[in-house]
Amino acid sequence: MQSPVCLLLFTIFCAAEAQSAKFQVIRQWKYVNFTWPDDESFKTAVAKGLYIPENNIIAGAKYFDDHFYVTLPRMRTGVPATLARIKAGPTQETSPKLQPFPSWQMNGIDDCNNLQSVQNVEIDTKGQIWIIDGGRIDTLMNSAAECSPKLLIFDIKSNRTNTVYVFPEDVAPKATSFLYDLVVDNTDGGYAYVTDNSAHDPGIIVFSVKENRAWKIRNAPSMAADPAAIHFTVNGIAISTPVNIAGIALGPKVHTSNDKLVINEAREVYFSPLSSLNLFSVNTTILRNENLTRQNFDYGSAIKNVGLKPSQSVGMVMDNQGILYYTLLANNAIGRWDSHTPFDTEQRLIARDNKYIEWPNSFAFDQNGNLTVVVNRLNRFIFDKLDLGVYNFRLISAEVGGKSYLYDDTFNYDSENGNKMVTTESTPPPSSSFRPSSSSEPVPSSSSEPVPSPEPEPSSGSNQQSSPTPSIDSNVTVSSACRFMVSLFSVTVSAILFLV
Ligand SMILES: *[C@@H]1O[C@H](CO)[C@@H](O)[C@H](O)[C@H]1NC(C)=O
Ligand SMILES: *[C@@H]1O[C@H](CO)[C@@H](O)[C@H](O)[C@H]1NC(C)=O
Ligand SMILES: *[C@@H]1O[C@H](CO)[C@@H](O)[C@H](O)[C@H]1NC(C)=O
Ligand SMILES: *[C@@H]1O[C@H](CO)[C@@H](O)[C@H](O)[C@H]1NC(C)=O
Ligand SMILES: *[C@@H]1O[C@H](CO)[C@@H](O)[C@H](O)[C@H]1NC(C)=O
Ligand SMILES: *[C@@H]1O[C@H](CO)[C@@H](O)[C@H](O)[C@H]1NC(C)=O
């Protein structure tokens, strides 16, 4: 059953009596290569510097119809495609070549209509891939912006673009915005909530399909880097750049209350700046109401501070039962929280590994209850060329039960009835849906390891310092990494946006 090649099983640690999620490496790459049309085009690309293997990094992944769609943001030159796909499922080929998606042509940087730099995508239940294209390329270098940021909604099955929306300058200026991540809300014709990681004007950009319009929600404390959480280390490498709002997750449309199903149009959106230990949330009624942006509305009054995580995070995702999964960068770990329980006491670490979870960046659910994590060692990539002799990118996967928040039809609720309560006699309570499909597998359960609390203990709401850091080999490592950081970013201040 188990493929002989490299399908390395590693159980991630937990308290002795506890059970944890069993993550497996399902794909791993020392560097990425592509399905070139022919050998000639490969040689030409190398000769012209259009393909420089050590400059390509996999950042995000989403699953649809037996494929993973992976993103390769153009942070340095020599990235021939910014969106590509690979076959999912068991394989002997654990370092597959990437097939540019939708086509080679659409990945060409010669035309602003093509994809320039894609950090993340989402794929809805109809098989439409929502692509946020930041427009600006070579973001770790000092390049000028040629193209404006845009959103494409592309139908995978018919191979056709349904929507192209170019963001206006007042929402996402091409010189400074950085579209980082998105969630898709199928309410009222469809919305995308996109994090703009901009160093100058961070916020959540809301796009309405029906209105073909976008607006931006701004809130300084919750969407900007927390000065107290800027510095942290990952396997001895110091990260010292303030990074604004990055990860975002959307709660399910359907939830249970007193054994009844509730269809909830005001879903909760969760987000966090990378440089922050706080998790925040806001309901979608607030985001969808463009009028508020013109009324000097105090978004701070509507944004909740959910609580403190043990570390800085980037990727996060919620399943359709309200379970949040989030990356814990300084811990080399994955956190899990059932949103029906208190955040402060009920967060759990379900996986932690210094080697295999070095910078977990993004999540993808498949249709079988598996959660896949993209791990990409970005902490190294931003400072230096990749070491092509070691594995730099991995997809690791575990059965956790549950599906993406997008699949809120699990209960087969009667959508005609709108907000009407529907009884759920025949449907299982939320907890049972977290059983993995194979009953012999251990479950990440409440017996998993409690997450370490942030250190030092936060006093009166302000966290003085960043998270617990992994042990550092020597002070030399830290200081030289720090110096490197300073020299790198003093050159590229305008391009910091997102180092990630
Ligand atoms: C990339 O793939 C091409 C053919 O598709 C092959 O000729 C080439 O050797 C590969 N390059 C690297 C660096 O692996
Ligand atoms: C999708 O269309 C493009 C041309 O627009 C073509 O190059 C590509 O091969 C098509 N993909 C599939 C899977 O048919
Ligand atoms: C926003 O304002 C317009 C015009 O003032 C109004 O027609 C519309 O109902 C308002 N929308 C919301 C969600 O309040
Ligand atoms: C959404 O949030 C606002 C502000 O906190 C609140 O007034 C409103 O009742 C919330 N709506 C729902 C449906 O939870
Ligand atoms: C994904 O789910 C399927 C079906 O439950 C299971 O057979 C498979 O082993 C899972 N894959 C991983 C990598 O967990
Ligand atoms: C690192 O620096 C701290 C404070 O400067 C010092 O107390 C500690 O002994 C140093 N550790 C090593 C391994 O040199």
From TrEMBL:
<dbReference type="InterPro" id="IPR017996">
    <property type="entry name" value="MRJP/yellow-related"/>
</dbReference>
<keyword id="KW-0964">Secreted</keyword>
<keyword id="KW-0732">Signal</keyword>
<feature type="region of interest" description="Disordered">
    <location>
        <begin position="418"/>
        <end position="473"/>
    </location>
</feature>
<feature type="compositionally biased region" description="Low complexity">
    <location>
        <begin position="458"/>
        <end position="471"/>
    </location>
</feature>
<comment type="similarity">
    <text>Belongs to the major royal jelly protein family.</text>
</comment>
<dbReference type="InterPro" id="IPR011042">
    <property type="entry name" value="6-blade_b-propeller_TolB-like"/>
</dbReference>
<feature type="signal peptide">
    <location>
        <begin position="1"/>
        <end position="18"/>
    </location>
</feature>
<dbReference type="GO" id="GO:0005576">
    <property type="term" value="C:extracellular region"/>
</dbReference>
<feature type="compositionally biased region" description="Low complexity">
    <location>
        <begin position="432"/>
        <end position="450"/>
    </location>
</feature>
<protein>
    <submittedName>
        <fullName>Yellow-1</fullName>
    </submittedName>
</protein>
<dbReference type="Pfam" id="PF03022">
    <property type="entry name" value="MRJP"/>
</dbReference>
